Amino acid sequence: MSIDINGKIALVTGANRGIGKAIVDSLIEHGASKVYLAVRNPESTVELAKQYGDKVVTLQANVGDDASISALAQAAKDVNIVINNAGVVQPADLLSADAFAALKHELNVNTYGLLRVAQAFAPVLQQNGGGAFVQLNSVASIKNFTPFTTYSASKAATYSITQGLKDVMAPLGIAVLSVHPGPIATDMGDQVGMTEVAEPANVVAEGIVSALKAGDFHLFPDTMAKQFGDAYDSYAQAIINGQ
């Protein structure tokens, strides 16, 4: 299913910085008529609001909270594209007690957060004639990175859920895109020590626009991610995209 950004109304979680902000820039550049900026702190989008005026609308939202996401869906009833970008990483020694707290936090935001957003917005997208649901996963969703095992586990779960969403949303006229970046120049990338190999966030943002138009399910946008995608492709085509 091909989705053209031009004229569409979109919502981006975690829209205030990093990949989320780059996605907002790309959506507007490619003709989106309005973009909802779903963020925990509305003050963090002041500069985006100055830049884009009435093309953006800031909404307070926390993907880790059920009531917050229900309210978000009520406030953005006209969306055609939902991009769930918000996520967290909490490094922890796997053999320490900290691992339990890290995994709980990452699962709540990354994994349960995805399910909250998908359940809240599937009826909205269907009511608006279909559209697209985009989930920011990671190369860590298909390959564990030992220092970030709990994060990798949460992203493996989100990737599995994204595959399920592809199947259940298709009859509703909703295309699903699973995005798997490698190291990207963001605060999170700096946090996990990937600064030297990180690529600009607009690589992901422009990749999303192109992948939606092409009707793809997987997107491996940057150099490292493309290496993963090339190695993974035959399995993905036969098993993930197969019948």
Automatic annotation (TrEMBL):
<protein>
    <submittedName>
        <fullName>Short-chain dehydrogenase/reductase SDR</fullName>
    </submittedName>
</protein>
<keyword id="KW-0560">Oxidoreductase</keyword>
<dbReference type="GO" id="GO:0016491">
    <property type="term" value="F:oxidoreductase activity"/>
</dbReference>
<dbReference type="Pfam" id="PF00106">
    <property type="entry name" value="adh_short"/>
</dbReference>
<comment type="similarity">
    <text>Belongs to the short-chain dehydrogenases/reductases (SDR) family.</text>
</comment>
<dbReference type="InterPro" id="IPR036291">
    <property type="entry name" value="NAD(P)-bd_dom_sf"/>
</dbReference>
<dbReference type="InterPro" id="IPR002347">
    <property type="entry name" value="SDR_fam"/>
</dbReference>
